[in-house]
Design goal:
The complex is a heterodimer. By secondary structure, chain A is an all-beta fold. Chain A has no helices and twelve strands. The radius of gyration of chain B is 13 Å and the shape is globular. Classes of the chains: A mainly beta, B mainly beta.
């Protein structure tokens, strides 16, 4: 069975600090996909990134970066120079490739609070 | 510009009174999903449609049903809502299915209150 663990329930930092959100996953599939979504107070889930299990390259997009390490089954997300607008709940999610369109298994989310 | 639309955004119903939540999409995606998200919890998949093929998760209660009359619309019917069904209901779409898991686009959700 697949599982996603986000051990950090809530993180609070001061604006401009860097912050890393942890994600650890479990799966028996060799082909799988990992995602990060942002959920602001409005409730809509906003897609941030997708990574497949064969691509371990780290990715950077502006202030956001992702570190995928298969050896530790982790897919961590770092925000550099955080801003108040980054405040939201962030979900890590997993989809096992062999199951096709069976939806996403989400972690419990990390509530990120950026204080001005 | 809206891609996945959910109506209403807030729905109040009475214990045991059937309620229907609506989702529509302008993306022409083949797959539509319904997730339930209770307060401070992760979204949980209830079921999905691939075109007209309905796929129910094993632990989705029978109280929850879904209809997809055409590509654009999908409905979530709760036959007899209980207090435990109060939650945010999220609709999502993806272009296709297969080994390449597609990005899912989410609507803003409908927050259901059961009195």
């Amino acid at each position: 069975a697949q599982k996603v663990t986000q051990a950090q329930t809530e993180i609070s930092v001061v604006e401009k600090e860097d912050v890393t959100l942890d994600c650890v996953y479990e799966t028996r599939d060799t082909t799988y996909y990992l995602f990060w979504y942002k959920q602001p107070p409005s409730g809509e889930l906003v897609f941030l990134i997708r990574r497949n299990s064969f691509d371990e390259q780290n990715e950077i997009s502006g202030r956001y970066s992702w570190n995928f390490q298969k050896s530790t089954s982790s897919f961590n997300f770092t925000i550099t120079a955080s801003q108040v607008v980054d405040s939201a709940v962030y979900f890590c999610a997993l989809s096992e490739g062999g199951r096709g369109a069976d939806g996403l298994t989400f972690g419990k989310g990390t509530h990120l609070i950026i204080q001005p | 510009d809206a891609m996945v639309i959910q109506n209403p955004r807030y729905q109040v119903t009475q214990f045991g009174k059937p309620v229907t939540l609506s989702c529509s999409q302008t993306l022409n995606h083949n797959v539509m999903y319904w997730y339930q998200q209770k307060s401070s919890q992760a979204p949980k998949l209830l079921f999905h449609y691939y075109d007209k093929d309905f796929n129910n998760e094993a632990d989705t209660p029978d109280n929850f049903q879904s209809r997809r009359p055409n590509t654009s619309f999908c409905f979530l019917d709760i036959r007899s809502p209980g207090l435990g069904d109060a939650a945010m209901y999220l609709c999502a779409t993806s272009r296709d299915r297969g080994r390449a898991a597609n990005e899912q686009f989410f609507g803003p959700g409908t927050r259901l209150t059961v009195l």
